[in-house]
């Protein structure tokens, strides 16, 4: 057993925890270690890729001239393979793999977790002279060095000389005599010592540091995070400088396997823990060791007890100015929007208190305690994904995890969701910030796997009349204000729509929509939170692929109580097949050049002063397999019925899918939360004749040009025949000279032709090109459309969830939607019968005049 007094700070465990390593100034040791008994046995004198032990040996004095001799073993880093160790011990001077020499005192050594590169931090000399001048205040700099790999990767400079005892890295270049060829980090020569003649040219040929730190900060250790994107360095602090420096923990950003800062940077390290006043150091300021211990204390009471155990600990840990609060804060949360490291203490304690209130809270009529919680939730949202000031954002967000409620904890987050759900009742008023936060976190309420929120789902959490505008005038989610040339968001209606979908997607007693949500959850096709700071969101980043559904009800009930009972047609279906939206193409230029004139009178179509994104694409259904559902709807006594067979699915050819055209526009911040967008689009199905005309015009005039698939002679001839027959039948229809059966046969033949052409692999973009070639989008006529639906709503912050209303479009659009009236029972039934007769494969499953709500969420991209 080694005497404790002889051991230095070097101590480590093997990867399996069974071997303890320690060192003295003369040797390295190992013991067999048993953590259960906390005992170590079988001491061996030794002189980690697994089974590799790295040993850094420093100098014997400030300027150790023996280190200039490579055989001395002084000021070197070596690696020893423990698998090759016999009963004896290694000789450090002659054995092992040398990673570098001329390294004065490389106290901290670390392996990059992904590349295996070996890095060290070095304490440089004190009391330095150059050309007879004392330059020790700001020179030389401390170093971060790279030493190659132990995993077989080649590194040309592995084992080379890093310059000590003759060469050192410049920090304050202007303070160095004869510095004309020097820059930060470049090596320069110390005054000739012991008759040796070493100059700056010699030093320039030695291995330079990767980064240089301020003189005398004394880096003691270096640790990478798990991804290798950051490295942490502890600085013990100076002793021979007029103004003390160091006494802190700092972070350096890495990109792949190299530091992001340049080798000449004076600001490579970002301070994480630092003292407010270094002038009282070292006696009355913290050093990182205390904070390293405190960082492992999770319980706040235990931390307080540690702080009260001594005056030194109290000054270091319990003061608001203590750096421990920064570490504790960043262990739990993303980087806050604060201007001074001294603010971490207050921010941490306020947040801890706000998020751990266990009493009942009312967020709809909030008092001081509720407002404190609401503003804390707001901060968590605004600060999500925040990284250090010198990087864009973190890949993962601690705040997002905190914002997700838990089944087992009655925290403020749980109370927020419980309270803000249960108070969305008819004629109730909801606090504005509470609504805004709830909508921002809407992705949680659309996830059936989230047990706590699924448990809270209930039909009493919303007013179903707002879903269908029952006995209400028509209105859109966003209202255009001429005075401000911008949109005002109706958040109260929107939160009722959100709660409706929370109930139908997540409620345990629901049928088709819940089944759809569960099936999508099995495929991990769930709603997701935003993935970068909301301040960085732009409408150009809106995802292009969405999945979700709409709700409809027909015939429209005449009484509110019936509406509340029925809720939606969806719950009478065996399964609700989700709809897929694909914004496959962005459209640039003046919308008057492409937006169909027949849709222009829609009240939702207004332009703001903000830039807009115009999108075009297609929509279809995603078929879900299902077992026959024989469940009865509550109170109706009616069994579930099958949906009509879908004519448009995700696997259908592009010619068969619904067309989509729309606009996305930014909305003003809501309660300080940015990243909101308004979306309005029209889904329509072109007539068979329109598609046939477009194909005939394109292939007859152009043939297979550009990247368009080649059409065979057989298909081309069938296309010509079908087109010719349709032209003839159009004339016959006018003369009432064609029978229904003959027309059905022609439509079936045409449908097969279109399917065959689609199977050639036409893309959505190619179909748009074909149709535009026949007739520009702006010239679209009602005779070219079987049916059309307008969708208008909002993309919640970050652009991952879409909520709003849809309604059927008809020729009444020519006169404005103000003429649209809700359908009575009698007229709805008549229209429904007419609809089924004329369009037996109606893909949207609703009749003309229908109005309802929708929800979509972005697919993982």
TrEMBL record:
Origin superkingdom: Eukaryota
InterPro entries according to UniProt: 6-blade_b-propeller_TolB-like (IPR011042), Beta-prop_PDH (IPR054539), Quinoprot_gluc/sorb_DH_b-prop (IPR011041)
Family matches, as SUPFAM superfamilies: Soluble quinoprotein glucose dehydrogenase
Residue stretches making up the Pyrroloquinoline quinone-dependent pyranose dehydrogenase beta-propeller domain: 6-289
Stored Gene3D superfamilies: TolB, C-terminal domain
Pfam family, one: TrAA12
Ranges in a coiled coil: none
Protein name: Putative soluble quinoprotein glucose dehydrogenase
Origin species: Phaeomoniella chlamydospora
């Amino acid at each position: 057993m080694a005497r404790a007094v002889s051991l230095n700070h070097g101590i480590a465990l093997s990867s399996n925890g069974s071997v303890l390593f320690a060192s003295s100034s003369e040797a390295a040791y190992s013991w067999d270690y048993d953590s259960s008994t906390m005992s170590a046995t079988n001491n061996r004198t030794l002189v980690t890729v697994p089974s590799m032990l790295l040993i850094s040996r420093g100098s014997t004095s400030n300027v150790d001239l023996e280190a200039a001799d490579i055989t001395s073993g002084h000021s070197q880093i070596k690696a020893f393979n423990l698998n090759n160790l016999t009963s004896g011990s290694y000789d450090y001077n002659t054995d092992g793999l040398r990673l570098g020499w001329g390294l004065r005192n490389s106290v901290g050594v670390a392996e990059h977790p992904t590349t295996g590169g070996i890095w060290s931090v070095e304490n440089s000399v004190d009391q330095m002279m150059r050309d007879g001048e004392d330059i020790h205040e700001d020179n030389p700099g401390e170093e971060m060095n790279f030493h190659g790999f132990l995993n077989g990767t080649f590194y040309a400079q592995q084992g080379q000389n890093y310059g000590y005892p003759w060469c050192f890295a410049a920090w304050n270049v202007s303070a160095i005599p004869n510095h004309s060829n020097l820059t930060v980090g470049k090596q320069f020569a110390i005054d000739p010592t012991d008759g040796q003649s070493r100059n700056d040219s010699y030093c320039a040929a030695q291995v330079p540091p990767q980064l240089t730190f301020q003189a005398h900060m004394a880096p003691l250790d270096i640790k990478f995070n798990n991804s290798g994107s950051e490295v942490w360095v502890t600085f013990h602090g100076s002793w021979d400088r007029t103004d003390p420096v160091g006494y802190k923990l700092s972070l350096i950003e890495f990109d792949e396997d190299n530091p992001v800062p340049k080798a000449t940077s004076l600001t490579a390290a970002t301070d994480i823990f630092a003292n407010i006043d270094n002038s009282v150091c070292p006696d009355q300021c913290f050093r990182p060791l205390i904070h390293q211990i405190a960082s492992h204390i999770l319980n706040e009471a235990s931390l307080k007890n540690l702080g009260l155990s001594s005056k030194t600990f109290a000054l270091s840990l319990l003061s608001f100015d203590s750096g421990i609060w920064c570490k504790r804060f960043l262990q739990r949360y993303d980087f806050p929007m604060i201007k001074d490291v001294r603010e971490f203490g207050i921010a941490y304690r306020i947040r801890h208190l706000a998020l751990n209130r266990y009493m009942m809270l009312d967020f709809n009529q909030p008092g001081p305690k509720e407002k404190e919680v609401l503003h804390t939730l707001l901060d968590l949202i605004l600060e999500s994904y925040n990284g250090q000031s010198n990087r864009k954002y973190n890949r993962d967000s601690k705040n997002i995890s905190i914002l997700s409620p838990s089944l087992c904890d009655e925290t403020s987050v749980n109370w927020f969701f419980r309270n803000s759900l249960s108070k969305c009742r008819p004629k109730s008023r909801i606090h504005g910030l509470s609504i805004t936060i709830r909508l921002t976190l809407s992705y949680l309420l659309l996830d059936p796997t989230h047990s706590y929120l699924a448990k809270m789902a209930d039909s009493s959490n919303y007013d179903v009349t707002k879903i269908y505008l029952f006995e209400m005038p028509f209105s859109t989610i966003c209202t255009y204000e001429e005075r401000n040339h911008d949109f005002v968001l109706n958040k109260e209606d929107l939160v009722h729509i959100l709660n409706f979908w929370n109930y139908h997607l997540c409620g345990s007693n629901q049928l088709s929509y819940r089944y759809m949500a569960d099936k999508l959850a099995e495929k991990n096709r769930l709603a997701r939170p935003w993935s970068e700071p909301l301040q960085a969101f732009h409408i150009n980043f809106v995802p292009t692929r969405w999945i979700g559904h709409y709700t409809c009800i027909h015939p429209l009930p005449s009484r509110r109580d019936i509406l509340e009972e029925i809720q939606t047609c969806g719950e009478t279906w065996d399964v609700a097949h989700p709809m897929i939206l694909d914004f496959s193409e962005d459209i640039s230029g003046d919308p008057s050049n492409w937006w169909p004139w027949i849709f222009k009178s829609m009240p939702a179509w207004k332009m703001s002063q903000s830039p807009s994104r115009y999108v075009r694409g297609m929509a279809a259904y995603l078929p879900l397999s299902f077992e026959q559902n024989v469940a009865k709807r509550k109170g109706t006594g009616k069994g579930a019925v099958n949906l009509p067979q879908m004519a448009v699915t995700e696997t259908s050819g592009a010619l068969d899918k619904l067309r989509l055209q729309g606009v996305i526009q930014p909305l003003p911040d809501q309660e300080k939360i940015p990243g909101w967008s308004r979306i309005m689009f029209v889904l329509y199905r072109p007539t068979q004749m329109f598609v046939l005309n477009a194909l005939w015009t394109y292939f007859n005039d152009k043939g297979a040009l550009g990247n368009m698939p080649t059409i065979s002679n057989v298909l081309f001839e069938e296309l010509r025949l079908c087109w010719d027959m349709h032209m003839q039948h159009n004339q016959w229809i006018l003369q009432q000279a064609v029978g229904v059966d003959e027309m059905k046969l022609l439509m079936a033949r045409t449908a097969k032709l279109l399917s065959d052409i689609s199977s050639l692999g036409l893309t959505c973009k190619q179909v748009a090109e074909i149709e535009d070639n026949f007739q520009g989008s702006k010239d679209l006529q009602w005779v070219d459309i079987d049916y059309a639906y307008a969708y208008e709503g909002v993309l919640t912050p970050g652009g991952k969830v879409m909520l709003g209303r849809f309604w059927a479009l008809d020729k009444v659009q020519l006169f404005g939607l103000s003429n649209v009236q809700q359908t009575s029972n009698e007229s709805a039934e008549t229209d429904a019968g007419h609809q089924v007769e004329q369009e037996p494969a109606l893909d949207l499953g609703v009749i003309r005049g229908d109005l309802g709500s929708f929800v979509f969420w972005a697919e993982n991209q």
